[in-house]
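## retry 2 of 3
previous attempt timed out at serialization; input unchanged, resubmitting
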Amino acid sequence: MTTALPRTGTALTIRGLRRSFGSAVALDGLDLEVAPGELLALLGPSGCGKTTALRVLAGFERPDAGEVLLDGEDIVPVPANRRDTGMVFQSYSLFPHLSAADNVAFGMRMRKVAAPQRRARAAELLELVGLPEHGDRFPHQLSGGQQQRVALARALALQPRLLLLDEPLSALDAKVRVQLREEIRRLQLELGITTVFVTHDQEEALSMADKVAVMRGGRLEQCAAPAELYDRPATAFVASFIGTMNRVPGRITSEGLAEVLGVPLPVDGPATGSLFLLRPEALEVTDGGPDTVTGSSFQGASTRLTVRLADGTEIKADLPSHAAGSFGAGARVTVRPQPRPVLAAGEAA
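## retry succeeded, writing output
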């Protein structure tokens, strides 16, 4: 590996990005900041605008309004082929008639890089992605994971200032997906390249990204480090979208606390409504009481109990597996929240 591969990351700023398709609003004033060398994941439900945002960054869509700044330069007017960005697609998009090495070298050939340099660079990148012996193979001779590694090498061949990944792992099986996301993260850190990654998979986003931007309806709900998103969601939507969340009835006391399952708790955000959000791991389960265990799911170190409360509400509670063995279906228990702040989710139906 040469010392020429790593490069200083590029700062990315998105300001007031808007894009509509007829009456459908895909992006509604999106603002984002990505520091040099960061990996940002765009996460959200289908139709939230994350793929449109990536296509605007790549130059495949032109926004109706807003700016996309790379190190302070607005690239919105710049054609896609001159933006100095690398794109990895969900479908790999390799040329079937070209070998792996020629696929990697394709962009360099279009830029009139000399053949010896192209070959050397392609070999270097195939080694970087763990395929040093696969340069002469054609796409149909490669597994899905190997094809995606070739696509990644091709995107890196021209040392782009910005790497864009459009759900690149969704077509792979679970084991290969985990291996490749670790490999992508390793390479991204090693090269120091600023990266925007679109995914619908929460686990991918939380495990790979420096920051995760949760989107809904073309707007940004919250952008933060994974741990902050999980532990301190800014909105009820983020709290419910990231991980598993229980909606538990309660009330606001005169002191402004949330009384949930008989326990007064501080409230994050506005203290309003009669539904409150609790993570399964924030609940304690003790033997005997008004609540009933209706099922359990072994998850290794922890076991998730499904419990029907006395009022009929069904919730999930995570316990260490060694402590959950006595709580079989039909067991009578008492569920209480740990003394953590809760987020109000609105009014009960």
